[in-house]
Design a protein that fits this description.
Blueprint lengths: L3 H13 L2 E5 L6 H12 L7 E5 L9 H9 L9 H9 L4 E6 L5 H14 L3 E6 L10 E4 L11 H13 L10 H13 L4 H10 L5 H15 L9 H15 L2 H10 L8 H8 L9 H10 L4 E5 L2 E5 L2 H14 L2 H22 L5 H10 L1 H14 L1 H10 L1 H6 L3 H13 L7 H16 L3 H18 L2 H16 L4 H8 L1 H9 L7 H16 L3 H18 L3 H16 L3 H17 L3 H17 L3 H18 L7 H18 L1 H12 L7
Parallel strand pairs: 1-4, 1-5, 2-3, 3-4
Antiparallel strand pairs: 6-7
Helix pairs in contact: 1-2, 3-4, 4-5, 6-7, 6-8, 7-9, 8-10, 9-10, 11-13, 11-14, 12-15, 15-16, 15-17, 15-18, 17-18, 18-20, 18-21, 20-21, 21-22, 21-23, 22-23, 23-24, 23-26, 24-25, 24-26, 26-27, 26-28, 27-28, 28-29, 28-30, 29-30, 30-31, 30-32, 31-32, 31-33, 32-33
Length: about 675
């Protein structure tokens, strides 16, 4: 409601200032104003406007990774997070919005200063209850909505929320005398939008006069002087406290317990984490709906299904009550173990038909997984180690390598070094992360440690997984013969005979390594047998991530065997799978291979465009082609054929058009 003047002023500021910070009390509307301003200004930024929500972030060390992931960087470089992000934005003309910075002010100040220095075309908008303190920062305090007059913005918002809560409330705003009462409510609430929304929600059950009377009593009780206006932060806290008092006892209890969530959450998570004592699991949905009706929580329905969330100010209030109740540790434990169990379920289902659904669900709960791991690292390091290793697929397949590597290293350092299943799996997962970052030395070292533990534990599944890791760390630098000693059918068979699952992740991953090694050695018949068998197995399981890599190998075989049309069909199938999982590394190698396939068919223009698009994706991944001779050979062959087909000038023009493909901002 309103904010036209503020939007116009902010729009003018963004033309001249590179850092604008919106400050103000909680609930005053900083985030909404920033969002509307960013959408309005986005057309003026060729590389888009990007929204980074920081309120769920509790570990300052993950700030840069959070920003990078929002921008599409896959965290696969060995550069530091700050260096990688600064290099990525250096040539960008974009708007970056950092929402809710107050709990990370020092870290945001440092990051923003580095980004602005590195990227002349970057503009940053921050929302925070206090300025960042950067050089060149322009601070704009967001004021409450005007609350004076019969047509004030505050009254319009109050009316809108009241009617949304109960259509019968509309009559309260048509009678001049009652409208005056409504205006008085707005003045008492100091025009703070969140306070107005909470009061408006009460008109579902009460009359306007009842709201005004009870709100007036509340404020007079808290103020030493009945006519004195409370400070704005106290006004909001008073309004929230009043709403809290008007909730039924079970609603207050659920409000406090829900404050343990870092971001948004599902009804199932709320039941699992918050039920107990007088609040049964069966009662949670009804009580949650009651809180939604009072605007304490907000309900959304999107691709991930029904979810709820609390605004930060309301969560903070609930957290104080959770501490008062003495339940902070208990709820945090239940939260952590619920999400650790979810990670285990996702790992079990990853190689099956629900893989895409698990990817979406785990991605939606990313902030909760972080919060759970942080809590367990401080209270139960062994459980943290188990959870971090279980999430291997999220770190490895979904582009969170640096974050995964950090959690795994911290958990390994905090636990007993004696061999255990959890430690062996964590070492393997850490090696995977290092390997995909191009750190083959670290990947090989962790793989060898995990191999020794797997043998000591007699775990054939883990032995197969380790064989994949070690073989790839040998294969990618250029030694396919040694890789085959670990990954070919003769090496796999004895391990499978000792209990290894032929359709488990270990056997299938090792098959991929063998197929690629055979291909590099130009042993195409054996490579086809391995890749086709892998494709059939993954198709039978309903799995998409690994199946796409089988298509990649089959495409490479077809291309090198003089069948570029067949190669193109395989690699397009591969890319469709990788896009579903946002696998940047898979997309990057797929674009290189598709470029080579279409170039071999004579379409140099399309090949150049694909190489340009691939160049952009490789920049998000880190080191191009991972420094692998075999991957570099594919890319170079496509460029040579494209240049030969259309000439250097046309190639450069088409390549740049691929680089300039539209971004995918908020």
């Amino acid at each position: 409601m309103g904010r036209g003047t503020e939007l116009d002023r902010l729009h003018r500021l963004l033309r001249d200032r590179r850092l604008v910070t919106l400050t103000g009390v909680g609930g005053v509307g900083k985030s909404r104003l920033a969002l509307r301003a960013a959408r309005r200004a986005s057309r003026g930024y060729p590389d888009g406007a990007w929204w980074v929500e920081l309120s769920p972030l509790r570990d300052p060390a993950l700030l840069t990774a959070t920003v990078a992931h929002t921008l599409g960087l896959a965290e696969q470089s060995l550069l530091s997070s700050d260096e990688e992000l600064c290099a990525w934005v250096a040539d960008k003309d974009m708007l970056l919005v950092l929402d809710t910075c107050e709990h990370l002010v020092d870290d945001c100040r440092h990051l923003v200063a580095e980004l602005l220095q590195s990227a002349p075309g970057l503009t940053v908008v921050a929302t925070s209850r206090q300025p960042l303190g950067c050089h060149g920062e322009w601070v704009t305090e967001v004021q409450p909505l005007p609350a004076e007059g019969a047509d004030s913005d505050a009254l319009a918002l109050f009316r809108d929320r009241a009617v949304a809560a109960g259509p019968q409330a509309a009559a309260a705003f048509t009678d001049p005398r009652r409208a005056a009462t409504a205006a008085d409510v707005c003045r008492r609430l100091d025009g703070i939008p969140l306070a107005l929304e909470l009061a408006g929600a009460r008109l579902r059950l009460w009359t306007l006069e009842q709201v005004a009377e009870r709100l007036g009593t509340r404020f007079e009780f808290l103020s030493d002087n009945r006519t004195a206006q409370l400070p704005r932060h106290q006004t909001l806290r008073t309004a929230i406290g009043w709403s809290h008092e008007l909730c039924e006892p079970l609603e207050r209890l659920l409000w406090a317990r829900l404050s343990v969530f870092a971001g948004d959450f599902t009804p199932a998570a709320a039941r699992a984490v918050c039920a107990g004592g007088p609040l049964s699991a069966a009662e949670v949905p009804r009580v949650l709906a009651g809180l939604a009706g009072k605007s304490v929580v907000r309900r959304t329905v999107a691709g991930a299904g029904e979810r709820y969330r609390m605004l930060d100010t309301i969560r903070e209030y609930g957290r104080t009550w959770l501490v008062e109740l003495g339940e902070e540790r208990r709820c945090a434990d239940r939260h952590a173990h619920w999400f650790a169990a979810m990670a285990g379920q996702a790992a079990e289902g990853w190689m099956g038909p629900e893989q895409i659904d698990w990817y979406r669900r785990i991605s939606s709960d990313h902030s909760e997984l972080r919060a759970a791991l942080e809590h367990l690292l401080g209270t139960d390091p062994a459980a943290a180690l188990e959870m971090a290793g279980t999430l291997w697929f999220f770190w490895f397949c979904c582009g969170h390598l640096r974050e995964g590597r950090s959690f795994l290293e911290r958990a390994l350092a905090a636990t007993d070094p004696e061999p255990s299943p959890a430690r062996a799996r964590a070492l393997w997962a850490l090696g995977l992360a290092a390997m995909l970052q191009g750190d083959m030395t670290a990947g090989l070292a962790r793989g060898q440690e995990a191999a020794a533990q797997a043998r000591a534990l007699g775990d054939p599944e883990l032995e197969l997984r380790v064989a994949y890791l070690v073989s790839v760390c040998i294969l990618m630098p250029g030694d396919p013969e040694r890789a085959l000693e670990l990954a070919d059918p003769a090496a796999r068979a004895p391990v499978i005979a000792r209990g290894g699952d032929p359709d488990g992740a270990g056997a299938l991953l090792t098959r991929l390594s063998a197929a690629y090694a055979y291909c590099v050695l130009e042993r195409y018949e054996e490579a086809t047998a391995e890749a086709a068998g892998l494709l059939a197995a993954c198709t039978g399981l309903g799995e998409r991530w690994l199946r796409a890599y089988a298509d990649y190998v089959l495409a490479l075989i077809a291309l090198r065997s003089g069948r570029p049309g067949e190669a193109g069909r395989h690699v397009r199938a591969m890319l469709s799978g990788k896009r579903l999982l946002h696998d940047s590394f898979g997309i990057a190698i797929g674009l290189d291979l598709l470029a080579a396939a279409v170039a071999a068919q004579g379409d140099g223009v399309l090949a150049a465009r694909l190489l340009g698009a691939g160049h952009v994706v490789w920049r998000t991944v880190g080191r191009p082609q991972m420094g692998s001779p075999s991957l570099e050979a594919v890319r170079d062959a496509g460029e040579r054929q494209a240049r030969a087909a259309i000439g250097d000038a046309a190639f450069e023009q088409a390549f740049l058009s691929g680089v300039a493909a539209p971004p995918a901002p908020m």
